[in-house]
């Protein structure tokens, strides 16, 4: 019963932070989105699978398989799919350059838009240490910045070897409520700096679950958001123009029809009293 006129076709779709394996993953929304959005290229910008979550307790309902199957099917039908691992699916980082089921894995890529503009595409967790220690690093200078990124990589590897969960940016940021806005701003600035170093026009990342498109000192900073709360994606039109799509918004706005009736139960508010103790759920 698929209405072809409803399907939108893009040059590229950017999706991140789905956290498959965490109960908070909005897989029904994502499936709905994938059904109605086609693209020549789909770039998965990290934290698609929540490996840390699955390690603690296995939660893999059919809908998670459906998402994976949907992506593999698109790959079979000719969509180029690139998987850039994040910190929650860093097990994928052991396979750079590997193709599986038509999906290619890369640490980061430079994507050229249809209008020739170049964008650095990465998940963003490599800047956690920098963001946390922004003030100190600004004081120490450039060498400290590079060292901090290197230390972040080493620490993550050591923690992984010891079976410790990845330190979570957003869980930490939430504890620092007063400064949360500063952290988002700091993250954006640090990532934009990296794009400037790479001599590109913009950057597309995920990690902090905060979808936005804005200019930061001449760098176009684009964040894909997440499919845990906001259900957002970035789409590149055939002419290279970028659009931030908020899918839950569209669903809730749609007139009562087949889609609305199907998705209404998911829209029921969850009890607000439960602060997410579990880092896997909202953790960036
Ligand atoms: Mn992340």
UniProtKB/TrEMBL annotation:
Domain Calcineurin-like phosphoesterase as annotated: residue spans: 10-210
Transmembrane regions listed in the UniProt entry: none
InterPro entries: Calcineurin-like_PHP (IPR004843), LpxH-like (IPR043461), Metallo-depent_PP-like (IPR029052)
Signal peptide: none
Pfam families to which the protein is assigned, alphabetical: Metallophos
Keyword flag Hydrolase: yes
Recorded GO MF terms: metal ion binding; UDP-2,3-diacylglucosamine hydrolase activity
Keywords: Cell inner membrane, Cell membrane, Hydrolase, Manganese, Membrane, Metal-binding
GO cellular component, one term: membrane
Keyword Ubl conjugation: no
Domain of life: Bacteria
GO BP terms: lipid A biosynthetic process
Protein's recorded name: UDP-2,3-diacylglucosamine hydrolase
